[in-house]
Amino acid sequence: MIKAFLVLAVLCLSTLTARAEIINIDNAELARLAASGVPVIDIRTEGEWKETGVIAGSRLLTFFNENGRSNPPQWLEKLKPIAKPEQPVILVCRSGNRTRAAAQFLAEQAGYKTVYNVSQGIKAWAGDARPLVPPSTSMAVCAPGTRC
After folding, report:
1. Which secondary structure element, helix H or strand E, spans residue 73, and what is its range?
2. Using alpha carbons only, what angle is made at residue 86 by residues 118 and 89, rounded to the nearest 5 degrees?
3. Which element (helix H / strand E) includes 83?
4. What is the pLDDT of residues 72-96, one digit of tens each?
5. What is the Cα gyration radius of the chain?
6. Distance of alpha carbon 139 from alpha carbon 130, whole angstroms
7. Which of 78, 92, 121, 125 could bridge to 96 as Cys pair (CB 3.0-4.6 Å)?
8. Phi first, then psi: what are they for 97, rounded to 5°?
9. CB–CB of 70/64 below 8 Å?
Protein backbone atom coordinates (compact mmCIF):
# COMPACT_ATOMS: atom_id res chain seq x y z
CA MET A 1 0.00 0.00 0.00
CA ILE A 2 2.73 2.49 0.94
CA LYS A 3 4.75 1.43 -2.10
CA ALA A 4 1.76 2.10 -4.40
CA PHE A 5 1.25 5.50 -2.78
CA LEU A 6 4.90 6.44 -3.35
CA VAL A 7 4.72 5.41 -7.01
CA LEU A 8 1.56 7.47 -7.46
CA ALA A 9 3.17 10.46 -5.73
CA VAL A 10 6.24 10.26 -7.98
CA LEU A 11 4.05 10.08 -11.09
CA CYS A 12 2.03 13.10 -9.98
CA LEU A 13 5.17 15.12 -9.27
CA SER A 14 6.72 14.23 -12.62
CA THR A 15 3.53 15.36 -14.37
CA LEU A 16 3.68 18.69 -12.56
CA THR A 17 7.32 19.28 -13.49
CA ALA A 18 6.69 18.31 -17.13
CA ARG A 19 4.19 21.15 -17.59
CA ALA A 20 4.91 23.64 -20.31
CA GLU A 21 5.86 27.18 -19.52
CA ILE A 22 4.72 30.33 -21.30
CA ILE A 23 6.98 33.23 -20.41
CA ASN A 24 6.14 36.81 -21.34
CA ILE A 25 9.26 38.70 -22.36
CA ASP A 26 10.22 42.25 -23.24
CA ASN A 27 12.50 43.52 -25.99
CA ALA A 28 15.71 43.19 -23.99
CA GLU A 29 14.97 39.54 -23.23
CA LEU A 30 13.93 38.94 -26.85
CA ALA A 31 17.26 40.32 -28.06
CA ARG A 32 19.21 38.25 -25.52
CA LEU A 33 17.39 35.00 -26.28
CA ALA A 34 17.55 35.48 -30.06
CA ALA A 35 21.30 36.18 -29.82
CA SER A 36 21.70 32.93 -27.89
CA GLY A 37 20.05 30.99 -30.74
CA VAL A 38 16.44 30.62 -29.61
CA PRO A 39 14.34 30.74 -32.81
CA VAL A 40 12.09 33.77 -33.27
CA ILE A 41 8.81 32.96 -35.06
CA ASP A 42 6.92 35.97 -36.45
CA ILE A 43 3.31 34.82 -36.73
CA ARG A 44 1.95 37.93 -38.46
CA THR A 45 0.62 38.04 -42.02
CA GLU A 46 2.67 38.75 -45.12
CA GLY A 47 1.18 42.24 -45.39
CA GLU A 48 2.25 43.04 -41.84
CA TRP A 49 5.79 41.80 -42.47
CA LYS A 50 6.06 44.05 -45.51
CA GLU A 51 4.52 47.03 -43.71
CA THR A 52 6.90 47.13 -40.74
CA GLY A 53 9.79 44.85 -41.57
CA VAL A 54 10.83 41.93 -39.39
CA ILE A 55 13.39 41.12 -36.74
CA ALA A 56 16.61 39.94 -38.39
CA GLY A 57 16.92 36.17 -38.29
CA SER A 58 13.28 35.58 -37.47
CA ARG A 59 11.26 32.94 -39.29
CA LEU A 60 7.98 34.03 -40.82
CA LEU A 61 5.11 31.64 -40.18
CA THR A 62 1.59 33.10 -40.19
CA PHE A 63 -0.68 31.66 -37.48
CA PHE A 64 -3.90 33.61 -38.22
CA ASN A 65 -4.58 34.50 -41.86
CA GLU A 66 -5.98 37.84 -43.08
CA ASN A 67 -9.50 36.62 -42.22
CA GLY A 68 -8.55 35.70 -38.65
CA ARG A 69 -8.61 31.97 -39.32
CA SER A 70 -5.97 29.52 -38.26
CA ASN A 71 -5.15 25.87 -38.77
CA PRO A 72 -2.96 25.01 -35.77
CA PRO A 73 -2.11 21.42 -36.83
CA GLN A 74 -0.84 22.58 -40.25
CA TRP A 75 1.01 25.50 -38.65
CA LEU A 76 2.63 23.11 -36.17
CA GLU A 77 3.93 20.88 -38.98
CA LYS A 78 5.73 23.89 -40.45
CA LEU A 79 7.10 24.91 -37.04
CA LYS A 80 8.52 21.53 -36.01
CA PRO A 81 11.50 21.63 -38.40
CA ILE A 82 12.44 25.02 -36.91
CA ALA A 83 11.84 24.22 -33.23
CA LYS A 84 11.03 20.86 -31.71
CA PRO A 85 8.78 20.62 -28.62
CA GLU A 86 11.75 20.14 -26.29
CA GLN A 87 13.42 23.33 -27.61
CA PRO A 88 12.48 26.85 -26.51
CA VAL A 89 10.80 29.08 -29.07
CA ILE A 90 9.96 32.81 -29.21
CA LEU A 91 6.68 34.02 -30.73
CA VAL A 92 6.14 37.59 -31.92
CA CYS A 93 3.16 39.32 -33.53
CA ARG A 94 2.06 42.95 -33.82
CA SER A 95 1.06 43.59 -30.20
CA GLY A 96 1.30 40.30 -28.28
CA ASN A 97 -2.35 39.27 -28.59
CA ARG A 98 -2.13 36.63 -31.31
CA THR A 99 1.01 35.14 -29.83
CA ARG A 100 -0.84 34.44 -26.59
CA ALA A 101 -3.21 32.12 -28.49
CA ALA A 102 -0.36 30.47 -30.42
CA ALA A 103 1.70 30.08 -27.23
CA GLN A 104 -1.22 28.43 -25.44
CA PHE A 105 -1.64 26.02 -28.35
CA LEU A 106 2.05 25.10 -28.28
CA ALA A 107 2.20 24.71 -24.50
CA GLU A 108 -1.14 23.04 -23.84
CA GLN A 109 -1.75 20.93 -26.93
CA ALA A 110 1.52 20.52 -28.84
CA GLY A 111 3.79 19.64 -25.92
CA TYR A 112 6.24 22.54 -26.19
CA LYS A 113 8.14 22.94 -22.93
CA THR A 114 9.20 26.62 -23.09
CA VAL A 115 7.38 29.20 -25.18
CA TYR A 116 8.41 32.85 -24.99
CA ASN A 117 5.70 35.37 -25.83
CA VAL A 118 6.89 38.84 -26.84
CA SER A 119 4.25 40.57 -24.75
CA GLN A 120 4.18 43.90 -26.61
CA GLY A 121 4.99 42.59 -30.06
CA ILE A 122 6.78 44.17 -32.99
CA LYS A 123 5.16 47.54 -32.21
CA ALA A 124 7.23 47.86 -29.04
CA TRP A 125 10.36 46.56 -30.82
CA ALA A 126 9.98 49.25 -33.49
CA GLY A 127 8.99 51.83 -30.86
CA ASP A 128 12.31 51.23 -29.11
CA ALA A 129 14.07 51.91 -32.44
CA ARG A 130 15.39 48.36 -32.55
CA PRO A 131 16.51 47.11 -35.98
CA LEU A 132 14.06 45.72 -38.52
CA VAL A 133 14.87 44.26 -41.92
CA PRO A 134 12.73 43.72 -45.02
CA PRO A 135 11.15 40.26 -45.09
CA SER A 136 12.67 37.80 -47.54
CA THR A 137 11.52 34.50 -48.94
CA SER A 138 14.36 32.77 -47.08
CA MET A 139 12.69 33.79 -43.81
CA ALA A 140 9.24 32.56 -44.80
CA VAL A 141 7.87 29.18 -43.83
CA CYS A 142 4.43 29.44 -45.37
CA ALA A 143 1.61 27.51 -43.80
CA PRO A 144 -0.75 25.76 -46.21
CA GLY A 145 -3.65 27.97 -47.17
CA THR A 146 -1.75 31.20 -46.57
CA ARG A 147 -0.05 33.48 -49.02
CA CYS A 148 3.61 34.05 -48.63
Report:
1. helix 72-79
2. 20
3. none
4. 999 999 999 999 999 999 999 999 9
5. 17
6. 19
7. 121
8. -80, -50
9. yes
